Amino acid sequence: MARRILITGSVGFVGRHLLRALSAMLPPGDEVIATALAPLPPDLPCRQLDVGDAAAVRAALRELRPTHTVHLAGLASPPEAARRPGAAWQVNVAGTINVAESVAAEAPGGMLLCVSTAEVYGRSFLAGRPLDEAALLDPATVYARSKAAAEAAARDILAEHGRLVIVRPFNHTGPGQDERFVVPAFAAQVARIRLGLATPVLNVGNLSAERDFLDVRDVVRAYGEIILGSDALPAVATFNVASGQLRRIGSILDDLRDAAGCAFEVRHDPERQRPSEIPRMAGDGAALSRALGWRPQIDWRDTVGAILDDWTRRLAHERAADGTGPPAAPARGA
After folding, report:
1. How many structural domains comprise the chain?
2. For the NAD-dependent epimerase/dehydratase domain, which residue ranges apply (predicted)?
3. Residue 50 included in any domain
4. What is the pTM of this model?
């Protein structure tokens, strides 16, 4: 039977990568329906859908009857969630409830792929070992608490009468991610230095933290493999999406320096210090590997280079558009 896959939050960083991945992974006859909150971008065929509007979500699911629903829509920035806790709970929790209830009522037999976060483990990371899906959820931030609550709500709604896969991706990055996140924040600064738009000084926050980083293209491939392999999965399942390899934040500066081929000074900026910092976040992704054979494939150096090239292109085009100079020569790999 052909699949009909509905995606919420399709125009975001992960959503755009997922659409590209699915176009390559799905067989002919499968259909992908992209949805997003207005305003809709002109470059992407997309239906308007506000996951906060329960009636609209119910009507969309009743009309489309997806076999699979991938719920990406949400407030994804931990610092923004800390500034706007009410909005974080409204979007991340109430939005997930609306989607899960609509799947249960209007797409019987359909699967919900609920995208959570590894941050739900929170203080459990202080044990210092890689955590698997059985680890205690002890979220330490507004964002993480809202995602843990969203998981619980989806599980309660679909446990008896639906199919649910919860994924907990660890830090993922790649081309197209904005400067609210650490790797593109560094890369954008390096790209400005590379183009002569800024002095060779990089402002940074805490460099000692260690994180399990993934390329977003590996992450969305995991989501695609879950969709393709969903018939072989339990009715309710939870998977970490993790590389199993820790990287110190400070080492990313060395990787960017190597990729850019330019020198810069590093200065600590207290404004960039995230609160409630957990020193190490290590993940165990063995369950997903056992179930579907998924493993990360993209080399970290390729990830860093792609992000730096993406920012270099974007900034060069902005520079040309505002009349301050011609576009720079294409970056490595362009």
Report:
1. 1
2. 5-241
3. yes
4. 0.93
- Look up the CATH number of the domain holding residue 79: 3.40.50.720
pLDDT, one tens digit per residue, over 123-182 is 999 999 999 999 999 999 999 999 999 999 999 999 888 899 999 999 999 999 999 999
Q: Is residue 28 part of a domain?
A: yes
Closest C-alpha among 185, 187, 188, 191 to residue 205: 185
In a domain, 45, yes or no: yes
Question: Are the C-beta atoms of residues 23 and 44 closer than 8 Å to each other?
Answer: no
Tokens representing 203 are 């402002």
E-state strands within the chain: 4-8, 31-36, 47-48, 68-71, 111-115, 163-169, 172-173, 201-204, 210-212, 214-215, 236-241, 246-248, 265-268, 280-281
173-209 pLDDT, tens per residue?
999 999 999 999 999 999 999 999 999 999 888 899 9
Q: Is 265 part of a structural domain of the chain?
A: no
